[in-house]
Structures are given as structure tokens and as C-alpha cells.
Amino acid sequence: MPSTELKQKILAASQHLFIEKGYKKVTYKEIANQVGISKSLLQYHFPQKSQLLEELMNDNFDSWIKTIPVSDLYTKLTVFLLMFFHFISCNSQVDKFMSEIIDNNELFNSFMTFFSEWLTNSEFVKQGNDKFKAALLFTLSGGLQLFRFKDKYQVSLDQVTHTIMTTLLKLVGKSAQTINKTLVNAEQNYEELKTRGWQLRY
User: Does the pLDDT of residue 128 top 80, yes or no?
Assistant: First the structure.
């Protein structure tokens, strides 16, 4: 593993290039040149380009989740999704980059695999709760497709998140009262966080 300083330089260069040019178009050589190291050294530390993307998502998601001061996991997840879609929509290049992920089956599968692992590590999914995990990944997959066509079908960002969370909570057997309480509490926290916004880690 590279030193902390070198790793941060690699990730910063990768993030900039991925967003500017799109994940598929960026080469190892371009990243290495931007960092000022050889292509072989970059590949030594990150043998697969997908590892760079996973590191970036993990670092950004971890930093974002720390901004949400909510203890209830359902509410916290709802706030996270509201902020996530808001962040994407407010950054045209990030929006374009996310669209590339959703449009490309290989990238989308990688994203969903990453999100599955991140959810577990972030304790959104308790160990052994496969039903919740499966339901969340199912609803998130559909929700991202809804986000992709939000303009065409005139769907608001709030509606995208509400659709995901309402479907998820119904699938895991939560009552209408719990669902409504979760959405109301999340909206209140979201409005407070939205004014500060999120930033990319690098």
C-alpha cells in the first residue's frame, strides 16, 4: 500500500479525471502523469482501476455519513439518500459521472457490490440480516434507474428517495406509521444538512 501522502495524491488525481472525462475514458497513464509517478508504480499499488473507484466511493461515503447526526438507522439511511441525490443533482459533472455508472452494466454491478459491502461496514445492515440487505439493494437498484429518468418523467429528488424507502420498509414489514415517521424525521434533518451541503473528499 502506498504512503498516505502518495495514496491521497493518486486518489485526488483519479477523482478529478473520472469526473472530468468519465471512468471508462481515463487511463492509468493519465493518472500516473498527473501524480508524477510511473504507470507501473500506480499499477503496483492499484492493480485494477476499479480499486481506485471503490476507494474513492468508500472515502467519500464514509465522510458524508459522519455529517448525519441521527441514531435511528432507517432515518439515517433516508437522510443519506436525500443528501446523496441532492449532491449529485447540484454538481453537473458528478451527475454525468453517476449517469455513466447507471448506464453501464459492469460499472453498475460494481457500484451495487460496493454499496452492499459499505452498508454492512457502516452498520446499516446488521450481521445476518440478509432480508433487509436484499430488500435495500433491490429498491436502490430501481431507485437509481428512477433517478436516471427523473427529468423525463418529472420526478422530484424527494420522490426518488421516498419511493426507495417506502418500498424498502414495506418489504421488511414496517407499519405505515413507522414509514411516515421515518420520512418526516428524515426531511427535518435533511433540511438542516442541505444548507451546509456535501463536498468531495479529494
Answer: no
